[in-house]
UniProtKB/TrEMBL annotation:
This is Glycosyltransferase involved in cell wall biosynthesis. Residues 10-122 form the Glycosyltransferase 2-like domain. It holds the Pfam family Glycos_transf_2. It comes from the Bacteria. It comes from Bradyrhizobium yuanmingense. InterPro entries: Glyco_trans_2-like, Glycosyltransf_2, Nucleotide-diphossugar_trans. PANTHER family: GLYCOSYLTRANSFERASE, GLYCOSYLTRANSFERASE 2-LIKE DOMAIN-CONTAINING PROTEIN.
Amino acid sequence: MAGSNKTIQVYIPVYNDIRFLPDAVASVLMQQDVEVEVIVSDNASTDGTSEWLANAASMEPRLSVHRNRENQGMMNNINRIGELVTADYYMFLCSDDRLGATDALSSALKVMTDTPDVVSVYCDLLYIDALGRTLAARRFNRVGRFDTAATLKASIISGRNLFGIPLLHRRSAGAAITYPGHLSYLADVYHSAKCAEHGSLFHLPRQLIHNRYSGGNATGKLYHLSLLQFNALADEFGIKLSWAERALQRLQTHKTVLSKAAFMRYAGWRSRRA
């Protein structure tokens, strides 16, 4: 596919997510005013995901499925993006998330075509539960190009991803960047910072991605690595923190971890009541 340079490929790595994957795929196929292709890399699922994908792909030419013969691990499956994405523009979408509006991708593409120096577009988020009900909104209080160096340092000090979830990338900037296994908890922050080395990052102040928290997210299982990995990230990008910033980092990261753990418990409780 991807015959037009305005085609957007949406890459979805998946393992055993029959519950939410159909919603993620549908949210992409419903996009308006843009050509889309959904590329799913199935990491040897055993819960019916593979069968659903085979059936869906037989009826939907915009859905391309690649199944690993055996489970390659989460990060290896994510990094197939460099092999499978060929369009000029792409998005990486988690299998339990979804796009939040039918013009999400066309809005991001307009930014890309109007401002050639922009390599990644971000947006505000809506946190949802297992049934797609609103848990909370996350607004970043910014619009347009933003200071990526300041955002990276603030993320390290706060123990929180302050870039957000990317809505669209240029393949020339993002697809060749490997998500690092040693920074599994912060792979998205690392990727954002590396993309910023190739151009500007841009923010749309709309909730165009619905980020699902059902109590079983991989992120929740990794949060305890936060401080260790944020320090490794600082070393990776040569960011030196003063003793005062280190003290603030420990305090803020502790606060972030506690609040995230509480939010995960709340999301799990909401999902169990569904």
